[in-house]
Amino acid sequence: MALIGVFDSGVGGLTVLKGLAEHFPHHDFLYLADTARLPYGTKSSSTISSYLKKNIQFLKSHKVDLIVVACNSASTVLLNSDEDFGVPVFNVIEPGSQSALNHSKNKKIGVLGTRTTVQSRAYIRTLKKLDPEVEVHQMPAPLLVPLVEEGWIDDPLTSMVVYRYTKPLLDLGVDTLILGCTHYPVLYSVFQKVTGRDFPLVDSPLALKEILKEQWPKLMEEGSHKSTLQIYCTDLTPHLEQLIQNLIAPLSAQPIQKVDL
Ligand code: DGL
Question: What does pTM read for this prediction?
Fold first, then answer.
């Protein structure tokens, strides 16, 4: 069985981890939340690059078989790196882009993300590489991360913010929306209220599943092994601990550990 390392700047990547644990139930997971350095989405590429390397080294020291960089902001940096980390490292931008193209009929795709992700233009470059005819419209949505971290999911204020960010993209005619940040899938039903239920909202876990299945067929092997989950955080508070428990439910993890990186 494989040990899959997943990291994010914070707890949002648990949405990715949960999806992967559902798709690959016979493998073990190690999740690193770099909560001491959160947010990544407002930082420069060079700063994120040094965090990326430290996080990958940490996961490698735990002998993971592969690494998923769940954080979109860190994935934009990874995409520009040709470093060989000595272990397969997957980003979330390429799978998300491919999945969006599979869904879009009019080839107009909207992308919501942090400022770092939007300014990097990583989704635009990746989508255009896959299909030069695609039209991409981006919108930074910086208020959504703190709202999710605050647990304001089912809240009229959050619905208004989601509407403010999403409506301009819909007005531009996009027929598919990439939720380009780990935290946004938590607000899936809020987005659906704005876009309508049948509107394709692309989130990382599903898109990643397809790529991992293809590139790492071993993950599809059936078995009786019951998956384990270890969670490490670079900073830990009672609020964070509660948030983690809420986000991973109904999964359970071994006691959360704090680590200095
Ligand atoms: N995990 C980040 C991302 O997906 C969002 C939170 C942050 O800004 O660090 O871009």
Answer: 0.93
